[in-house]
Sequence to fold (124 residues):
Amino acid sequence: MDKELYKEKLKQFNSTPKYKAEVDFLMRLMQPKEGEKILDYGCGTGNLVRTIRTVFKAECFGYDVNNYREHDDEYLFKSNFFFKFDKVYFCHSISHVPEIWNKLEDLKTLLNPGAKIYVITPNA
Fold:
């Protein structure tokens, strides 16, 4: 998909009451805490990453196979991490990950003991 078209569609969807309610639910589930290391797997343009860093003061990072960043942001689109995460979330992205079970196995190497994975998806 064209980068600008994707960004516009995402901006429109992110402003819907449905999406806002899902993000609110995710934040209540995750309860991000200051200093926690959190990964947004499939971060899109990184809007939710920036929100978590700003509102909750957590060390949130984004990973996405596409580089749809809106700003030059050191926290977005990393592919190499030299630390482990306390939490990982997939917000409307898990259905777009090919061979998801293999990716989840790979993801284990990036998780601290007791880390949690959260999934918000609009489809069954």
Strands lie at 37-41, 59-63, 85-91, 111-120. The mean pLDDT is 85.
